[in-house]
Amino acid sequence: MDDLGRLSPEEFKAAEKMPLIIILDNIRSMHNVGSVFRTADAFLCEQIMLCGYTPQPPHRDIHKTALGATETVAWSYFKETAAAVAQARQKGYAVYAVEQAVHSISTEKMEVLKTLSADGIAKGLVLILGNEVQGVEQQIIDLSDGCLEIPQYGTKHSLNISVAAGIVIWESSKLLRSIR
Question: Which residues form the tRNA/rRNA methyltransferase SpoU type domain (predicted)?
Answer without folding.
Answer: 20-169
